[in-house]
Amino acid sequence: MSSLYVARNPRVAARSLDGEMMIMSGRDSMLFTLNKTATILWQAADGATPLELIVQQKICTEFEVEPGEALRDAETVARDLASHGILQISEEPIVRGDSK
Amino acid sequence: MSGLLEQMTEKALARNIPISVQLDLTYRCNERCVHCYLDHEDHGEMTTAEIKHLLDEMADAGVFILTLSGGEIFLRKDFFEILEYARFERQFCVKLKTNALMIREREAARIRDIGVESIQISIYSDRPEVHDAITLVPGSLQRSLAAARFLKSQGLRVIFANVLMVQNLQDYQGVRALAEELGVECTLDPTITPMMDGDRSVLSLGVDQDALRQVFRDQALVGDVDEFCTIAAPADENALSALPCSAGHTACYVSPYGDVFPCVQFPLPTGNVRKERFLDIWRHSERMNEVRSIRLKHLTTCTSCSHVGSCTRCPGLAFMEGNMRGPSSQDCEKSFARTGIPSANMLAKKQAPANLVQIRVVSASSATQPSAAIA
Fold first, then answer.
1. Which domains does chain A possess?
2. Inter-chain contact A31–B115, Cβ cutoff 8 Å?
3. d(Cα A37, Cα A14) in Å, to the nearest integer?
4. CB B126 within 8 A of CB B179
5. C-alpha–C-alpha distance, residues B222 and B315, integer Å
6. In sequence order, which ranges of chain A are alpha helices (DSSP H)?
7. Chain B residues touching residue A21 (CB < 8 angstroms)
8. Pair type for strands B118-122 and A31-34
9. Whole-model pTM?
10. Is pLDDT above 90 for B334?
11. In the list B180, B256, B267, B299, which could disulfide-bond B45, CB 3.0-4.6 Å?
12. Would you give the end-to-end CA distance of chain A in angstroms?
């Protein structure tokens, strides 16, 4: 199982608009929108659930996609969001993922 | 507005979501600006708990951009508690409007830690004697600028908001230079808003046509002057079907007492969040829906005006003049100053005295007295 953990960065501004997440980076006020898959990933990113489990439970059950491919895509998305300061990623559970 | 935000706003419009709300936390203020439209007495502000509950309702309704304003927001002892709740518990994108008098290094650092999109500070002049004479607080320019420096040093986005008035007409370039020197942004607005109680005497502080013309031809402000001042092509059916502005469509305003209005500059009460849910007011208020139903083609006078497609007409200012479907004279003045072409409203007003004389009824008994209207 992938040991990658993901957590929402509490410093961003975020709102769901018709199933798509609108996110403004706290670092540079850049605005992003996430598609439905990335939104599911974002919403499930509690810092405690491994990314692989999120993909299995939330994405593969929602979309017809091969689990390995879905996980690779999810890791790419997670790293991309992390590069913008929107998500935090770690090899360990992120205890303070969604707190102050 | 960025392309992405514009797209999201269009989406919000299609789904009747109030994506942007200004919430005034208080009308109390530690300045007494000569042009201010507010009554600074506290008539029963919402409590911390009421505001947090409102923030919950607004987040659930889809509000994303939350502007916290006043009055002076830092006069609320619970300001940081509210800000932290808005950011950390409900993930709003928060903008602040303040005079910054109460912001020092500690407050600036705390704002940075919490994270806001921008802090707008009212700066009326680069000269203390002019700025302080507007705010009626000695030393206020120096304190506001010190705060701007603290905020800037924390890496925060600072915007100077300048209102153009008779008193500071000569100073807007100085404010811009000051903003540039500090590395902050700067806006200039020639609009003076009537007092909330309807008193329009404050409008006498507004600048005249000559001054507006000068400002609208300042390349540093408007960019391409020819393009800015050009007369727009006649509005077609598409243009006439457009919305007058975002008020009541994707944006609204909530007062410190919980009253909901289409906009801070549109004092039409549509409900109170102490009595109804925010979303119920937004969706079901008859008045909100009336505002929402208006398109440019429904406007009186303006539909026949050559500026209708390019005018900055404010429905709230029009409402304060007596008719939300009518013209906003301040914007007529702006269109005139920009293009040299008088608006339909201005032309109609010019004809008014002649009409008055024409319809004057003179009774037989007073026919020999001099006419006051003509005299």
1. 5-90 (3.90.930.60)
2. no
3. 16
4. no
5. 23
6. 36-44, 51-54, 67-83
7. none
8. unpaired
9. 0.89
10. yes
11. B256
12. 29
Nearest chain A Cα distance for residue B87, angstroms: 7
- Axis-axis angle for helices B140-153, B105-114 (nearest 10): 40
pLDDT at B352: 58
Mutate to test the interface with A, among B2, B4, B85 (most CBs of A within 10 A): B4
d(CA B93, CA A21): 13
Among B15, B64, B118, whose Cβ lies nearest the Cβ of A22? B64
B19-69 confidence digits (pLDDT tens): 999 999 999 999 999 999 999 999 999 999 999 999 999 999 999 999 999
Max mean pLDDT among A80-89, B224-233, B240-249, B282-291 falls in B282-291
Pairing verdict, β A5-8 and A46-50: antiparallel
Q: Which residues of B191-204 are buried (b: 16+ CB within 10 A; e: fewer)?
A: bbbbbeeeeeebbe
Q: Quick one: tokens of B304?
A: 């026949």
Reported ipTM: 0.83
For residue B97, what are the contacts with CB-CB under 8 A and spacing of at least 6?
A: B67, B68, B69, B70, B73, B119, B120, B122, B161
Tell whether the model's pLDDT for residue B372 goes beyond 50. Answer: no
> Each residue of B220-244: pLDDT tens digit?
999 999 999 988 888 888 888 888 8
Looking at beta carbons, which residues of chain B come within 8 Å of A31?
A: 2, 4-5, 8
Option in B8, B64, B115 nearest A11 (CB): B115
Q: B53: which 2 tokens?
A: 């509950």
Contact residues, chain B to chain A, C-beta under 8 Å = 2, 4-5, 7-8, 11-12, 15, 17, 19, 59, 62-64, 84, 87-88, 91-94, 115, 117-118, 157
H or E stretch including B172? helix B172-182
Give the Cα separation of B50 and B28 in Å (integer). Answer: 18
Q: In the β-sheet with A13-17, what is the strand arrangement from edge to edge?
A: A13-17, A20-24, A31-34
Contact partners, residue A13, CB within 8 Å, separation at least 6: A23, A24, A26, B64, B87, B91, B92, B93, B94, B117
Distance CA B132, CA B145 (A): 12
Tokens of residue B47, six digits: 């409590």
Buried b (16+ CB within 10 A) or exposed e, B100-131: bbebeeebbeebbebbbbbbbbbbbbbbeebb
The C-alpha of A80 sits at a distance from chain B's nearest C-alpha, in angstroms, of: 18
CA A60 to chain centre: 15
Beta strands in B286-351 (DSSP E): none
Strand-pairing partners, residue B129, are none
Amino acid at A82: A
